[in-house]
Sequence to fold (352 residues):
Amino acid sequence: MKEDLKSMTLAEMEAAFAALGEPKFRAKQVFVWLHKGARSFDEMTNLSKPLRAKLDSLYDITAPEVARKQLSKKDGTIKYLWRLSDGNCVESVVMQYHHGNTVCISSEVGCLMGCKFCASTLGGLVRRLRPSELLDQVLFSQIDSGLPISNIVLMGIGEPLDNFDAVLRFLELVNSPDGMNIGMRHISLSTCGLVDKIKLLAEKKLQLTLSVSLHSPDNESRNKIMPINKRWNVEEVLAACKEYYEITGRRVSFEYTMISGVSDSPEQAELLAKKLSGMGAHVNMIPLNDVEETGLHTSSREAIARFQSILQSHGITATVRRTLGSDIDASCGQLRRKFEKNDQKGAADSAD
Ligand code: SAH
Fold:
């Protein structure tokens, strides 16, 4: 199999090109082409034809195809379903905010974590994405939509910290001044709470925003909705977040899904406020997006408002996430799931 060129850093490319007897600046030319979205070596017109042929014999260039594209009529949100080179699909969502355009990208095909409310994990983990495949989602979302991307959130399908090395390499690539040059402070990474990896990430001292999917302040109800809580419980996750804050100086934000009768009681709001006090934490409340298979439902408006006001009365910043793209299944593996189900249905139909 040919090597995946776009997953290489500029320094690695320079070393590889030196080994081929090519000067350093050639590597930079290729790096720039790749990070502008070139799909083949033939597009790299400032390289000689023999060099293009040589590179083509050694390296692959990843580039996903648009399998589906949906545009929200309500708010301009665009959802992409990308088909990767091996036929697997992942989603990205482009959202337009006043502060700039944000793309939400997937880190894995499927997910191992098994959260009970999440569509991404229903079929388990298929495979982890490569650094180039992470970058491609940002790059080709920008190219296809024509919207310059200034912010990235790793909150799509998959658990980014379960694909730790590829994600770190992706961050280096997307941050590169010769590439998309997106600053770490414009990047958020969301995790369900892999404590060992949160500690490793803290040591890297990156300036990105760490978001932790807490979804419940007590182990009894968190155990019911997030199997990972049996490995690392609420106290262990919060201790790791405090450590992360101390080491990096970056405040951790918490995602909190409002699920009726599971995570939305006033007692839980009080307990959450108590457990987060002194952390400068920000709580991002997310009304649950109903996923047919889960049997779980979103909290009432009243329960959400009450929960938020309890947190605020304890001095905790709590915002309710605006639902963008609700008309286009723009959340959490819903499009991939539907696509696959229909595909299977299609296959069954044709088998009949
Ligand atoms: N694996 C990472 C990132 C992926 S999901 C994590 O767990 O953080 C991004 C966020 O959406 C997470 O907070 C996740 O718990 C939440 N989420 C998943 N399914 C949801 C649903 N049906 N409704 C609302 N939020 C959901």
Observations:
- The first strand starts at residue 3 and ends at 4.
